[in-house]
Amino acid sequence: MGFLDALFGRTKPVRPDLDQLFGVPSAAVTLEAAAGFLPTGLGSVCFAAVEGGAFAEVQDQVRRLLDADTARGGVPVEASRDGYGYSWLLARHAPGELAELVNDLHAVNSELEANGFGPQLLCSLVTFRDAQGQPLALVYLYKRGTFYPFAPVPGGGERRNSPLELQVKAMLGNDLRLEPDLSRWFPVWGAPGL
Questions:
Q1: Whole-Å CA distances, 74 to 11, 13, 20, 118, 180
Q2: Confidence at 12, pLDDT banded by 50, 70, 90
Q3: Residues 6 or more apart from 30 whose CB is under 8 A from it?
Q4: Which InterPro entries match (predicted)?
Q5: Which residue of 6, 26, 50, 89 has the fewest CB atoms within a 10 Å radius of its CB?
């Protein structure tokens, strides 16, 4: 960081640390013990698609990498696009295979990053549910290198369970690097797997 950056209050952007994703399984243990949330086996990666052959080839490469599990009875990765034009890749595993799911999400992010498409990565999420059907996602913000909880109200349209999100934040402070700026806790309405 240079003198002018310090003078004008600019900070150096946080470098993404994809290995933070590997903290999700320990956070899952805390979520289950403290609040009864269990993994659903679903996780997804969101990115801004880019036109062009190179990006299309990397996207196909990622899908082939994840679809390799189908030979062992897995479900192929599902691609979709949301109402904002962002692309999503949804990976499915059995609920007890959280470590494998996290490995898949890490592989997708790493592959896109290694091929120069890191700036297109937006977030990754892993979903959970409690016995009452309350959904919860742990969202990893790629550009910030941090997590935040997102808990939509079931059947409540586009409403959030903010008290639950703050409760989960307090629970997971020792397990994950959490985003301190609550204004960056963006809703991911309609995210695949949620």
A1: 43, 38, 25, 27, 36
A2: low
A3: 171, 172, 174, 175
A4: PspAB-like
A5: 6
